Amino acid sequence: MPDSSTPLPGPHRDPGPQPVNAPQTPIQPTGSGAKGTEPMRAILLVVLAVACLSCSDATAKYLGRTLPPAEIAWMRYVVFTALVMPLALRGGSPRHKDRLSVLKTTRPGLQVVRGLGMLGSALFFIMAMQHLPLAEAAAISFVSPVFVTVLSILLLAEKVGIRRWAALLVGLAGVIIVIRPGADGFQPASLLPILTAFSWALGLVATRKMTVQENPLTTMVWSALTGLIALTALLPLHAVWPTPWEMLLGVFIGLVYTASQWLLILAYRQGEASVLAPFTYVQLIWSTALGFLVFGAVPDHWTFVGTGVIIASGLYTAHRERMRARQSRPAAA
Hints:
Shape: globular
Number of strands: 0
Radius of gyration: 19 Å
């Protein structure tokens, strides 16, 4: 069960908006999309997946009242790794001596960079939720396509057209509306979801830079272990002994998060990334609802306006990718 949030496209494709508040990402093989023929079922799975993701975030925000972010992230990584490792080991050779073959990689440096990028996205987002409403933090974090585009140009030599740049700049304008720099309501903590998005984008670009022959299961395991080892090293500096209730909530975070990843994998096996990507915005609805029900937080009108602008930008980007995919298929055939 690979990781946060949505599958990765081929080396020169951007699926549009992606949730970035999770440490892992399902990886989709390079190509035109998934081979499944049940788009409605895939859409439902995405909606359920981001609901689980929002539940994980809301619980992490609740725990953030008494536990440090590193400890909350550590509990999620422990549960996730404990559930994933048996599956990963089963993916190796049936012979016992080759069970650890899943750890073999040709790009260990990039694997570590990816793992640290996903870890950074998780930590920064948990930190952001300690100071910001859940819906606002989630909305700002959707600026990740801007960073993905910039890093792809710098590190992957990708070419970006004027329409895609225009859509990304509109999305960035939506983020600025939400955080309102210079306004009385601006909080420095609003920069944390931006760091979340940058960390996520760094991990995503590192994945794209890896050879397509790299086993997706290997990438998943490296990311899980990299995050777990780094957090375990940080834990003595920030640990607070949790109560039994807090430990139970920590296990719940890991279970619900893992469920979200499994649902996403199933979804992207049955639907194309460009079709499913817009439905990740349902996470903003779930986050707003949970923020109100659990914390009594009601976003102000500027947050709604900015979120609408971000969604419009992402939907247009997804539409352009869908059109490009259709145009490229006859040539590929």
